[in-house]
Amino acid sequence: MDRRRFVSLAAAGAAATVVPRLFPNGLRAEDRANVLFIAIDDMNDWIGCLGGHPDTKTPNLDALAARGVLFTNAHCAAPLCNPSRAALMTGLRPSTTGVYDNNQPFREAAPEAVTLAQHFLAHDYRVVGGGKIFHGGFPDPVSWQEYFPSMTRTQPGDPMPPSRPLNGIPNATHFDWGPLEVADEEMGDRKVADWARGELAKPQEKAFFLGCGFFRPHLPWYVPRKYFDLFPVESVTLPNVKDDDLDDVPPIGRKFANPNGDHRKVIETSNWRKAVQGYLASIAFSDACVGRVIEALDQSPHRDNTIIVLWSDHGWHLGEKLHWRKFALWEEATRNVFMVIAPGVAAAGGRCPRPVSLMDVYPTLIDLCGLTPREGQEGQTLMPLLRDPNASRETPAVTTYLQNNHSVRSERWRYIRYSDATEELYDHDADELEWTNLASDPKYADVKAEHARWLPKVNADPSPHANRGTE
What we know:
- There is one protein chain.
- This protein is an alpha/beta fold.
- Helix content is 28%, strand content 16%.
- Strand 17 and strand 18 form a beta hairpin.
- The chain has an eight-stranded mixed β-sheet with strand order 5-4-7-1-9-12-2-13, sandwiched between helices.
């Protein structure tokens, strides 16, 4: 299908014109709010305002969070790039579409899905994007009027070190880290940031939806040396890890953790501090890129009429549960960065502790921008929490990893049920690091039952693997 077919399909489900109304910030419908939609790849809670790591340096993210509502208990739909992004952008869960892995094009699984970007197109927004919004292997040209660097390529190339691996781990492919002797301007993410700055400086004839996706802190952790220098390796703080943490975890969970894989390699090559340094350096670089984009918005005439939604697609383990990367259903993998700055709606400095999901982004932006609602959305609007971050919310956050493995995260508990019906249960009031699995204790049967009722009722078979994506 070409773009016109998809746009018309999107419009068919929408009213011909947006219903006129007055926005909470006093804007008329014809002066609809713009959207700056910032995605960050593989960023866990190691940013200052979330308190995930004592050494981190993220002044721009922290300042941005202070301008709106920071969701401190936000979780992804899936703990890996492609299904997480496909779920957010379509509003359909992995368990509904069958998109569970990185090698599944979401358009084959849900060919008539109307993406978030398409819904804005159908409402006569100027919709442009750059960098990694959808998963890198599967760009979606029909969702955009323009894209940087092109409609079929989601990120500019990065410079590479002259010889690899820098960390000395053999056969590690892109599981590598180390400083580059280059200027920021040579990095792909910096080019995306500068493209976004140019877009924000342009006169705009209509409201815009600007998607801006950053690749770091995705592996490999190659960023300019000055960011590594912020974190002297000898003083880097390691995660607090329990050596027997997997002893009470079911076999499927231990398989996902794979302690004899990356974790053993890191320990045997004395790379743990260097790896943490590389991840922190990559976060600091990403923070600088975000800062450049926000600076450009603030210098533009669009500052007071632009909603900012910033999110990371999932978290990341650096040895917790003897696990590295994402690909798991524990806190470090499912928790993500998520903040909404909505002038006139969300008061500055809000911190929301309620469990929320990236599935909630689509319906929330519909409400914030006065678009026609879409049936079939599997998230919930966050408007009540934007107005009052301490408002009540019953719905927990559900995360799915591969078929029929789910985590249900409420404000206090994490409940995991695997495809073979084995379980984990963690009490975050007493066990923030999820060290003690309570699932076998009969006194928690009611807690498990309450959380189990939120498990997806549909677990679609995996969609065809027509192409290979990347991690």
